[in-house]
Amino acid sequence: MRSEPDRAPERPDEASSQRVAERRWLPAAAVTALILLVAGGARTVADATASDAGPPVRVGAVAQIQPRPGWDLETRSDDPPAARLHRGPVLLDVFALPPDAAGAISVARRFVDEALRPGLAQVTVGEPAATRVGEVEAVRFGYVGVTRDGVPVEGVVTVASGPSVSVVFDAYAPQGELVTVAEDLRAMIDGAVIG
Amino acid sequence: MTVRHAHLHHRSIFQLHQPAFWVFAAFLAYGTVRMVSGLVQLSSVSRSGWALSWLLLGLYAAPLFLLIYYLDLYEREPLSVALAAFLWGAFAATALALDAGGWDQVLAQVAGADFAARWAPALTAPVVEEFLKGAGIVLLYLIVRDEVDDVMDGFVYGALCGLGFAVVEDVVYFMAAFGGTPAGVLEGFYVRVLSSGLYGHVLYTGMVGMAVGLVVSRREPAPVRERLPLAAGIVMLAVLGHFLWNAPWLAFGPSAPIEGVEWLVLPLSLAVKGLPLLLFVVLALRLARRREQRWLDDTLAVEVGGDGLSETEFRTLRSPADRRAAVSAVRRRAGAPAAKLLMRLQREQIDLAMIASRVATPDDPALVQQRDYCRSLRSALAAMPGAQPAADHAGSSGR
């Protein structure tokens, strides 16, 4: 006569009285500190070593953008009127173009065809959405692509079209980086002065 | 030696009394919230492309998960711990790696924006990502110490963690860098998985896991301080492999858009970068497996013919194929409960080797208990109708 033959006997060390808790706080705390240092410390170091906000950057005769702290002016030219700012690997190119009677959407299409597509090995462009830069009507769209070096990039283009000038803001970065400065970009672009 | 050392295996991840468990759970919860919301947002690019991404990556990851899981011939890891390793890579490590993107900014401030845009993926990502994935393996070790006790264990957990990371990263790439449309996703799958899926995070983090396993192993005769340099070397090799993969130096494959015969050239060009490391890891795993077998032979030599292990059982135990055959035979003759019992007996006999390797004397109480336990399992199996003949085949001589 068997009793519950399909059940294995209990392991000697499975009896609750035999279990010894091994609570070790120090190694867990050390790993936590290291993870926080590597993941969170990066932002702290980047912010601490970032430059203060520089003076406003004028692009052409009638457009002006105020860099946020941590953004540096990399290049600026008057002919054609353009400027490039960067924070880390994120670049913000600003171009001042002649006004376009067909509006911002027309300028955006030309920018995609004449700048984005020739500049990248591969690019996919999102649908433009209406927005405003200050008092000026604008459109904004995102894009993702691959550079000719094979680096995946993502970008957001904002095109504002005023009566005397059209301004293109093209912010782009290696994949995953753009989101880290999204707040800065919104503040700089939405606060840009377009005459 | 106390009974405490006999508390060996088959523990789940849910060790609520361990501080490391709560650290692991907190980072995993944070990462899951962060990554799931981001992944859901990506579905707005193209729902069909998003669904196709998960489908394709599921087809790639599921068999690879099983392959890695079954690599350890003698000691199957608890499924909950294996899944935890995968989830750490998929959600915690990916989210923390995004947070660590600030190091790219530091690099840009030091070396310039153009340099950072070109070199950040090679200079910062390998160090940061391998550290964050490796931290998950260390936490797993702190939660279930006895489940990470040799190089093979470390590789299994590390590779599963790397696989989780690769799956989520691939979804992001398919949806972002490859456009997210079904055609783009298929292209991404070909480039990132079919052409290079064997070389990436699975290998790197598997190596980091090996290093962790080497350091914490209790089967190694050499003291820890002598193992540390080798472990450090393995981690550096993993980081170097990741660096070379990401660096623009060896990008001599066709660039996008890929057309015609370039589709065939791409896997070959990627193999130049990835194959040497893959071969190294395969060789290291073969060596680790041989060491495991030698360890089993040496440790159980004095136990063969004793209460815990008959000679026939030992011969079966040495060969995973024979073990599976014995279990199948018992299942046919006596049903699933008997087969389960035989599997448990085999597992406990492996644990007998673990205990034998840790105690100082052959009459240590823990070892005696384990022998008795194996004998009681054998008796229970023998009492099951139909199990006896097959159990004999499996080596249960009913001593």
Care to describe what's here?
The complex is a heterodimer of chains A (195) and B (399). By secondary structure, chain A is α+β, with helices and mostly antiparallel strands. In chain A, 26% of the residues lie in helices and 35% in strands. Chain A has three helices and eleven strands, in the order αβββββαβββββαβ. In chain A, a hairpin with a 3-residue loop joins strand 1 and strand 2. The termini of chain A are far apart. The model of chain A is unreliable at 1-6 and 12-21 (pLDDT under 50). Chain B has 399 residues and is mostly helical. Chain B is 74% helix and 0% strand. In chain B, helix 1 packs across helix 3 (79-99). The radius of gyration of chain B is 24 Å and the shape is elongated. Residues 1-7 and 390-399 of chain B have low confidence and may be disordered. The chains are: A alpha+beta (195), B mainly alpha (399). The interface between A and B is large, with 64 and 70 residues.
The sequence of SSEs of chain B as H and E is HHHHHHHHHHHHHHHH
Distance between the termini of chain A: 98 Å
Radius of gyration of chain B: 24 Å
Q: Spans of chain A of 5+ residues with little confidence (pLDDT < 50)? A: 1-6, 12-21
How many strands, what sense, and barrel or not for the largest sheet of chain B? Answer: none
Write the layout of secondary structure elements.
The complex is a heterodimer of chains A (195) and B (399).
Chain A: H1 25-49, E1 57-59, E2 63-65, E3 72-78, E4 81-87, E5 90-97, H2 104-119, E6 122-125, E7 129-133, E8 136-146, E9 152-161, E10 166-174, H3 182-190, E11 193-194
Antiparallel strand pairs in A: 1-2, 2-11, 3-4, 4-5, 5-10, 6-8, 7-8, 8-9, 9-10
Chain B: H1 19-42, H2 47-69, H3 79-99, H4 102-111, H5 113-123, H6 125-143, H7 151-176, H8 182-194, H9 201-216, H10 224-246, H11 262-300, H12 311-318, H13 320-334, H14 336-358, H15 365-382, H16 387-393
